[in-house]
Amino acid sequence: MSMVNDEKIPNNVDLAQDKRLQRALEQWQPDFLSWWREMGPEGFQEREVYLRTAISVTTEGWAHYDYVRMPDYRWGIFLADQVPGRTIGFGDLLGQPVWQDVPGEHRGTLRRLIVTQGDTEPASVEQQRALGHCCPSLYDLRNLFQVNVEEGRHLWAMVYLLHRFFGRDGREDAEELLARRSGNPDRPRILGAFNEPIDDWLSFYMFTMFTDRDGKYQLLALAESGFDPLSRTTRFMLTEEAHHMFVGETGIGRVVQRSAELAKLSKNGNPREQGGIDLETVQKYLNLWYSLSLDLFGSEISTNAASFFGAGLKGRAKEEKFEEHVCREGAVVMEIPEQGRLVRREVPLRSAMNEVLRDGYVEDCQRGVDRWNKILAESGLSFRLRLPSRRFHRQQGVFSGLRFDPDGRQISTEEWAKRQDDWLPSASDRSYVKSLQPRAIHERGKMANWIAAPAKGIDGQPVDFEYVRLD
Ligand code: BYC
Ligand code: FE
Ligand code: FE
Question: What is the 339 CA–ligand 2 centroid distance (Å)?
Fold first, then answer.
């Protein structure tokens, strides 16, 4: 029996009426499932997990909780409601009606944007696939799987667009989204951060805090798109993204809280003496994932970004908050390197759109850091976490190829080599973090020693709820 019907694939895109889409999905869906079994969460595929499934776009329907085995998860296809009379909100075509189909001249560019977005989703599942074996609690295990199945659904969202609007090219792209592999030297994922290993939970929380938050900003920018189906798809994805960032921010918050408790219990104020994570190590992981995530916005000065904006394909986050939407004039003053020195330059606004989007992201990250620092202040500790300079450890954009310290001061290659391990997780930091917890914690309500319990459970359930049935 076909797996492609409204019962198996909850949707609001008229799947039952769309024979072409059905045929494309009938090909792709079994390949997706084999990919999920091969590259999805390792060792827990047959377990029942207390998961949220989106079964409609209404407020009651998009958060339906029940026990489900992950391969039976009902990955759905949802577009946020159409806004009647919606017009393009920025760029050269400001005020014109949005497109319900792909304009021929933008076909290649839209395909690239959708493929790039789509590629990150399965990549993150691959990166996180072994984490179940060292989970700090059942609560966290469930959150990991929730994030994983929803990233799977985000892949479905992009595959829907490829199948529905891009014909045979789109079908080929959709297959390739299942063929690339995170970290594989021969067929890597497209963007840098998605090829980095995530093999401990501190990295996982940093990733969901900082990298999923890049997702939020990219989705906000795509939600402005003049290609209405892309706008509607990404708007619905954003509703799921909030939980991913919640997992990251509260995860780090719980680590910070526990580290503060353990610091007080130890003779020298070092949580490591009590089997916890010291705040210096937390800062190094933060430096790493924040800088990798800054790279995901692309270069500070980008002709791609300028043409995406001009053509009405990708706007700014919450475009309506800006005063002026054409942006043919205007400039952003940036300090950029020229011949090895930082100089102030005026960059035409459209070419600076990646940096404008990054500005909002940086502010959003800072709010999270402030909340962590509040936990430290309330614990009476003087240590504070902070975001490093945007220039620190960059591999994309105008600062790549040069070396900067976390304060943004330019330094020599020799100094970088000497100090690198003070700023980024060293091999010994990584093995320490991994050594903290030799086995997964499976007892209901119990937490690993290095992390505090969450303030409350999921979906109104208690913290000691059986979030994953392991027997
Ligand atoms: N790594 O003008 P440039 C998410 C490439 S996360 C490798 O600087 P542009 C999620 C770039 O492709 C959100 N390559 O940048 C989170 C270009 O290549 P070509 C994902 C990079 O084009 C957690 C060249 O460098 N969504 O959803 O303005 C879990 C020069 O490009 C990188 C999107 O990314 C990099 N970091 O902007 C799960 C939205 N950065 O053309 C999911 C769609 C740049 O020379 N993508 N390059 O071959 C875009 O809007 C743009 O492609 C980018 C780059 C913002 C990524
Ligand atoms: Fe996603
Ligand atoms: Fe996400």
Answer: 38
pLDDT in tens, 67-98: 999 999 999 999 999 999 999 999 999 999 99
Classify residue 9: in a domain, yes or no. Answer: no
pLDDT at 378 over 90: yes
d(CA 358, CA 43): 37
Residues 6+ apart with CB under 8 A from 424: 284, 287, 288, 393
Q: How far is the CA of 150 from the centre of ligand 2 (A)?
A: 7
Ligand nearest to the CA of 182: 1
In whole angstroms, what is the distance from residue 259 CA to residue 263 CA? 6
CA of 33 to the centre of ligand 2 (A): 18
Q: Is residue 163 part of a domain?
A: yes
Residue range 264-290, pLDDT digits in tens: 999 999 999 999 999 999 999 999 999
pLDDT band for position 1 (cuts 50, 70, 90):
low
CA dihedral 449, 450, 452, 458 (to 10 degrees): -90
User: Is beta strand 403-404 parallel, antiparallel or unpaired with respect to 48-53?
Assistant: unpaired
* pLDDT band at 60; cut points 50, 70, 90: confident
In a domain, 3, yes or no: no
Q: Which ligand is nearest to the CA of 351?
A: 1
Q: Give the mean pLDDT of 369-396.
A: 98
**Domain count of the fold of the chain:** 1
Domain containing 69 equals: 15-469
* Residue bearing the CA closest to ligand 1, atom 37: 298
SS3 43: coil
Point out which residues pair with 65 in neighbouring strands. 52
Determine, yes or no, domain membership for 2. no
d(CA 181, CA 314): 27
Say how many Å lie between the first and final Cα of the chain, rounded. Answer: 30
Q: Among residues of the chain, what percentage have pLDDT more than 70?
A: 100
Q: Which tokens sit at 15?
A: 């799947």
Tell me, what CATH number does 46's domain have? 1.10.620.20
285, amino acid identity: Y
- Global pTM? 0.98
